[in-house]
């Protein structure tokens, strides 16, 4: 009886699903009618009134249904579809949150274990200290010390593994697996979470870096919407996501009994700047599965002491070591995976100059360039697979990624200039600031360019490159400026020459010359990554010719441009702008000759000088840490440094090689000067509006100096320098600092050239410098010859009378830019004891020429 009632209730429920209501009336649809309506819905979910009437006429089984009832059916059908999609979305989010919750619980367990381990170590160290203090009265503590040392080094007496036989090789792989898992999910490394990397369903993941361990290490764990096997395939193809990977070769594959593999891998990585050597690695890679279904890929370096011949590193490389690292990939519901990535390396930082060591001994830089890069690439592939990423230009995502890889690889090749690629150093012109390298080998051309671009007749590639150390210049801000204000540093004629090199015969080599940049500057976006940390775009510059001989400049030019790290603020982030000329067709196999800029922020220093000037990195390396002339303000102000690398490539014909080299060297120097001016402009101002002006070492307080300047001006000229010479607070200093005319103070030295000791904001702008770097600028190097003669002819008058008016003249800024001024006033500045302290200058109506 109950079964019959249940069956009757089920049929009634099914009938209700097929009923539609129209003004209180129910309409029952037959299965044939529902099937016909579903076919129409799949083609057109929202048919018009005419379409619905046509449907009734053409489909006899719907002839007894009114058009309004058909309209309601489609409305309900769309509503059910919307509810289904929303339900699926919520289920997906719920699965992600459940997996993320599981990940956070595991991370919490790991942190609790780490706390317990630290508590144990703390107790053990207290016991050791107590035992040491009692050694003179109780010798029994020696046994405690020895037993404690044995507990701290449980593997010290284990013999090294021998990889010359399969059993020893498998034992080494299993040991690598255990050490990797202890880092990924255990407490083998003291992990510290990176600032700003907070967990969540849409976050990059939980990112941590090592503290107080051998080498440098980074770790990330996150949820990814891909199957474990797909993730493993992506991660093994390291050259597709690790932009610093030059090559990776699997030399041998040995299967294991449990279905895993042991591989011997050789890898080379690029150097990030021109003044350091690249690295290479011999790696053992072990792939296996765990009992819970997790997939593991772990690796470590092979060294000769374990029975595996590795050989010496090639010319231009330094052998580095991979400590137990790898990937733990655990499957989750809904086709997702929880992934743990651990990178632990020793890059032999001791063999690089001290100023560059932060590039090699910073776990934060490793996290940004390698660990997070791997996770971002996986997330990008997952988004592309789900169809959530939109691309422009009708290009497939794989094609656009290939363009990005070609740009990065070509730029890295130019920066490194490997001998085995055919690069050779060109003789220098006596200066060490710009390096010129040439490549005329078919090996280099065949690997990157097609034969139509480089015919058999003599053609080659020339690369001009330089490196600089920037202080207090945010990398992302600098690269954004270079991208958005190309006219501030680029030469349009040289851009046209680079574009013409894509043709069969380039036009005459230009000399860098000031020329109006094209007014038409259009950016066409192509693609960007999920988190917008990297983008690919085409830049179109409208051509213009100012004379008949410059008709080549009349054609539009196109650049394929890659930008990355423009929104990054974390330490170790790399901001980069790389571009290459392309023709209008822009084929998928278009040849690329990349040039550009790379800025890598180093770890912040709190004990160094807080300057905002730029230094030539080559000269810094030559003179050592004490060679750069800086002034420490002594207040421990937070400051940071960055390494800027510039590399530009040009093609040439053999008979024009030297001409192109001169042009390239001159062009790079002009770009360096432009970058220095930009860096000076965007660096944080040393004047804090709330705290007032910083006082310089060895000088009176800034407020006192400002009062001396104003009082002496009133005494000697009879006029007022400021509108209101108030003695209350720091009003004098603020008015002097914001004075519209350039006011500078110069030392009164009889046995040395006078140097500037103070300047207001207008004075710093005129000299294009900062307060700290101001003390390195000499007066006679600033004044033009006629202005210097006028000053020295009036010097005796200044000392006797106290002031003098100087005629209009010319000056030169610290960046070498000429400027003119309408008039200048010079006067003595007296201290409170009426003794000569310095000479002040005021330049009125000055402007750059």
Verbal overview:
The protein has 849 residues and is an alpha+beta fold. The protein contains 21 helices and 31 strands. Strands 3, 4, 5, 6, 7, 8, 9, 10, 11, 12 and 13 form an 11-stranded mixed beta sheet that branches. Strands 14, 15, 16, 17, 18, 19, 20, 21, 22 and 23 form a 10-stranded antiparallel beta sheet that branches. Strands 25-24-30-29-26 form a 5-stranded antiparallel beta sheet, with helices on both faces. Helix 11 (475-484) crosses helix 14.
| Derived structural class | alpha+beta
Number of helices: 21
Helix content: 25-40%
Q: Give the low-pLDDT segments.
A: 9-24, 136-160, 445-457, 605-638, 686-700
Taking the alpha carbons of the first and last residues, their distance comes to 104 Å
Quantity of strands, as a count: 31
- State the major sheet: 11 strands, mixed
| Outline type | globular
Mean pLDDT: 76
Strand content: 15-25%
Radius of gyration: 35 Å
DNA-binding region: 22-85
Biased composition (Low complexity): 149-160
GO cellular component, one term: nucleus
GO molecular function, one term: DNA-binding transcription factor activity
Notable traits:
alpha+beta, 21 helices
Set out the fold topology.
Layout: H1 2-17, E1 19-22, E2 25-28, H2 31-43, H3 49-58, H4 67-133, H5 141-152, H6 166-184, E3 191-193, E4 206-210, E5 216-224, H7 228-236, E6 245-255, E7 261-269, E8 278-289, E9 295-301, E10 317-319, E11 321-322, E12 325-331, E13 337-346, H8 363-385, H9 397-416, E14 424-425, E15 435-439, H10 442-448, E16 459-471, H11 475-484, H12 492-500, E17 521-528, E18 534-541, E19 557-564, E20 574-582, E21 595-601, E22 614-616, H13 617-623, E23 641-653, H14 657-682, H15 702-717, H16 731-737, E24 742-746, E25 756-759, H17 761-767, H18 771-774, H19 779-782, H20 785-793, H21 795-801, E26 803-806, E27 809-812, E28 818-821, E29 823-830, E30 836-844, E31 847-848
Parallel strand pairs: 8-10
Antiparallel strand pairs: 1-2, 3-4, 4-5, 5-13, 6-7, 7-8, 8-9, 9-12, 11-13, 12-13, 14-15, 15-16, 16-22, 16-23, 17-18, 18-19, 19-20, 20-21, 21-23, 24-25, 24-30, 26-29, 27-28, 28-31, 29-30
Helix pairs in contact: 4-5, 11-14
């Amino acid at each position: 009886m109950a079964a019959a009632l249940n069956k009757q209730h089920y049929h009634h429920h099914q009938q209700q699903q097929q009923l539609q209501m129209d003004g209180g009336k129910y309409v029952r649809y037959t299965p044939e009618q529902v099937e016909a309506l579903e076919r129409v819905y799949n083609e057109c979910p929202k048919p018009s009134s005419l379409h619905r009437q046509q449907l009734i006429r053409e489909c006899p089984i719907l002839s007894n249904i009114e058009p309004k009832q058909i309209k309601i059916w489609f409305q309900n059908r769309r509503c059910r579809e919307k509810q289904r999609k929303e339900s699926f979305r919520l289920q997906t989010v719920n699965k992600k949150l459940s997996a993320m919750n599981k990940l956070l619980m595991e991370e919490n367990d790991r942190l609790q274990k780490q706390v317990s381990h630290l508590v144990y170590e703390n107790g053990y160290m207290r016991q050791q200290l107590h035992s040491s203090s009692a050694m003179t009265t109780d010798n029994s503590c020696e046994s405690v010390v020895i037993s404690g040392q044995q507990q701290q080094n449980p593997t010290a007496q284990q013999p090294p593994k021998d990889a010359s036989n399969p059993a020893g090789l498998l034992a080494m792989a299993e040991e690598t697996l255990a050490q990797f898992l202890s880092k990924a999910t255990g407490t083998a490394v003291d992990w510290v979470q990176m600032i700003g990397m907070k967990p969540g369903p849409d976050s990059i993941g939980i990112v941590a870096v090592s503290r107080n361990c051998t080498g440098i290490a980074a770790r990330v764990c996150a949820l990814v919407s891909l199957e474990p096997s797909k993730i493993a395939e992506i991660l093994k193809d390291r050259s597709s996501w690790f932009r610093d990977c030059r090559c990776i070769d699997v030399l041998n594959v040995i299967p294991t009994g449990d279905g895993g593999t042991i591989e011997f891998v050789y890898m080379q990585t690029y150097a990030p700047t021109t003044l350091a050597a690249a690295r290479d690695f011999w790696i053992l890679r072990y792939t296996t599965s765990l009992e819970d279904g997790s997939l593991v890929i772990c690796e470590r370096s092979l060294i000769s002491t374990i029975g595996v011949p590795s050989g010496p590193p090639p010319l231009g490389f330094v052998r580095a070591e991979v400590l137990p690292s790898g990937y733990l990939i655990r499957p989750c519901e809904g086709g997702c995976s929880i992934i743990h990535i651990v990178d632990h390396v020793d890059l032999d930082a001791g063999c690089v100059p001290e100023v560059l060591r932060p590039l090699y001994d910073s776990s934060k830089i490793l996290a940004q360039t390698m660990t997070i890069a791997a996770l971002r690439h996986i997330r990008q592939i997952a988004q592309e697979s789900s169809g959530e990423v939109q691309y422009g230009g009708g290009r497939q995502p794989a094609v656009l990624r290939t363009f990005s890889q070609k740009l990065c690889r070509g730029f890295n090749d130019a920066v490194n200039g490997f001998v085995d690629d055919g690069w050779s150093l060109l003789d220098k012109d006596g200066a060490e600031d710009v390096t010129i390298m040439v490549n005329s080998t078919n090996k280099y051309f065949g690997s990157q360019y097609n034969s139509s671009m480089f015919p058999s007749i003599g053609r080659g590639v020339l690369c001009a490159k330089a490196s600089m150390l920037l202080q207090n210049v945010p990398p992302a801000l600098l690269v954004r400026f270079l991208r958005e204000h190309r006219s501030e540093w680029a030469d349009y004629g040289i851009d046209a020459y680079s574009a013409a090199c894509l043709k069969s015969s380039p036009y005459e080599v230009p000399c860098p010359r000031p020329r109006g940049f094209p007014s038409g500057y259009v950016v066409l976006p192509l693609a960007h990554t999920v988190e917008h940390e990297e983008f690919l775009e085409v830049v179109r510059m409208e051509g213009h010719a100012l004379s008949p001989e410059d008709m080549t400049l009349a054609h539009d030019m196109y650049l394929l441009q890659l930008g990355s790290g423009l929104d990054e603020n974390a330490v170790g982030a790399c901001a980069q702008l790389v571009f290459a000329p392309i023709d209008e067709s822009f084929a998928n196999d278009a040849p690329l000759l990349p040039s550009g800029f790379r800025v890598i922020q180093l770890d912040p220093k709190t004990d160094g000088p807080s300057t905002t000037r730029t230094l030539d990195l080559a000269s810094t390396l030559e003179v050592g840490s004490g060679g750069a002339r800086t002034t420490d303000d002594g207040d421990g102000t937070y400051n940071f440094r960055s390494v800027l690398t510039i590399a530009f490539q040009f093609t040439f014909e053999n008979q024009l090689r030297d001409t192109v080299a001169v042009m390239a060297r001159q062009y790079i120097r002009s770009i360096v000067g432009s970058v220095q001016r930009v860096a000076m402009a965007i660096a944080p101002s040393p004047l804090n509006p709330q705290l007032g002006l910083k006082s310089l070492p060895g000088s009176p307080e800034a407020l006192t100096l400002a009062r001396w300047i104003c009082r002496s001006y009133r005494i000697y000229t009879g006029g007022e320098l400021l509108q209101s010479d108030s003695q209350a607070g720091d009003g004098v200093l603020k008015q002097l600092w914001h004075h519209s005319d350039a006011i500078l103070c110069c030392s009164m030295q009889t046995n040395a050239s006078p140097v500037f000791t103070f300047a207001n904001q207008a004075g710093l702008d005129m000299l294009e410098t900062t307060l700290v770097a101001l003390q390195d600028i000499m007066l006679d190097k600033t004044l033009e010859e006629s202005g210097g003669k006028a000053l020295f002819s009036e010097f005796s008058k200044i000392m006797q009378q106290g002031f003098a008016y100087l005629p209009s003249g010319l000056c030169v800024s610290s960046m070498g830019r000429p400027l003119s001024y309408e008039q200048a006033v010079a006067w003595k500045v007296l201290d409170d004891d009426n003794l000569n302290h310095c000479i002040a200058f005021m330049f009125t109506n000055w402007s750059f020429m």
